[in-house]
Amino acid sequence: MAEKRKPLLGFVSKLPSGTTPGNSGKTRCPLCMGLFKAPRLLPCLHTVCTTCLEQLAPFSVVDIRGGDSDTSSEGSVFQELKPRTLQPQIGILCPVCDAQVDLPMGGVKALTIDHLAMNDVMLESLRGEGQGLVCDLCSDREVEKRCQTCKANLCHFCCQAHRRQKKTTYHTMVDLKDLKGYSQIGKPILCPAHPAEELRLFCELCDQPVCRECMVGGHREHPCDLASNVVHKHGDSVRELLKGTQPHVEALEKALAQIKGTNRALQERVEAVAADVRSFSEGYIKAIEEHRDKLLKQLEAIRIQKENSLQLQKAQLEQLLADMRTGVEFTEHLLTSGSDLEILITKGVVLERLTKLNKVAYSARPGVNEKITFSPKEKAGLCRGYEVYDLHRAREKQTVSFTVICKDAAGESMGRGGETIQVAVVPKDNKDSPVKTMVHDNKDGTYYVSYTPKEPGIYTVFVCVKEQHVQGSPFAVTVRKRHRSHPGVFHCCTFCSSGGQKTARCACGGTMPGGYLGCGHGHKGHPGRPHWSCCGKFTEKSECAWAGGQSAARSVLRTVAL
Q1: Is the C-alpha dihedral spanning 403, 407, 412, 416 positive or negative?
Q2: How many angstroms separate the CA atoms of 548 and 551, rounded?
Q3: Angle of the 115-126 helix axis to the 340-358 helix axis, nearest 10
Q4: Is domain 397-480 in CATH 2.60.40.10, yes or no?
């Protein structure tokens, strides 16, 4: 036998002992900061006064209906929906989260009324935290009592008149001070088509509350039942969706924790490498200090690039988490504090929002790592006459060359060729596979040597003249992976480089209002200076950091400042 469940909410329900009713964060408009007046519930589950919404500047948007998941963005936290049909529509931006709100045909006043917020406003007014309530009958005097039968707030004069009328003589009257512990004292929700009738029924075919007049009119042959009889079935569907949303909130919180941990590790690693660079630079006075500054500048550029990627991913995850939390908090508040009709009226908006949020794809791992190395044994030439070292040197499958200069016992150049020069380049991990070398006699006492390493790694270079090692031989050379050139364009923004195309994107992650998917002049998300479209680097002559094949991470929910 099924377990008997108690109703979700009575129209007037008592709060548990020690619980404070109401919440100023749920009773005040985020725009005018006053108590809600005719509050409207937006698709993102934020509530705003009707008047405040009407004052927002509307703009034309493209309504995207349906689409397949776009998996072309490697490293992106979110996946965008490809549009199937495009319809011009008027929209506004939510003043809380900047989410795009497509207005229905009736405009702002056609949005769902937040009856839950109206109830919270009345509760706050009862506690004396808001402005006083006005009599429902005379709309002039302050309220003293409430008729539990009519669900009407009455002043002292109207209360006496209420008692004198024959039809209302035996109605139950309660002092307002006795209602402060209740969680629901809202007015009856009336039918918009028949203002004299209260919404008590629910049409299963049309999926909306109706009154008795509606049932004998346009819903005559539709399956209708009392709202209290069907609220459990619809409430359970909301609970199931809420249950599926909670794990996403936990996963996002965990992902953000990993982002923060990686960011800390990156900072620690940067500080450690910077300490190594400073320590190695101390013995070279002005020359090595100059080179040290150059290395630190390179290190800072790497840090900024990696940190920008982490911050972008962090901002995207935080926005999705905020949207998820809003959905969870509103749904929990609706299920625990809303009346049967409030749940049924708001159910459609909640289900649509939670379903949309649950379909958003995100990466639970940081898009970059903290790995940065400094190689003090790799030579980078002379600086102020001193030998200095760089962060990287030779590249695989690229020709490397050097010159051997032969001098006599007095230190003067030989001025002629003909000496026997022997050069061998051997991989440290595979000594049986030496690299082919070429030695060219310049006939002036110098010899041009070149070789092409096939694989990255550490190589040993032997240089001998007349079977005698030259000074410093054998030498150690570290071969890096092949230099990656930029496949993109070095531009100021996608608006200029693409000729104003809205679909053009950029690896910097910046977007523009008005439907532009790429960065623009001075707009939020633009890095503020010329950069590569493939990887977002600011230096024109640099190695591409593009992972290959797919675009860099970017936001698809809102513009994110880097």
Answers
A1: negative
A2: 8
A3: 120
A4: yes
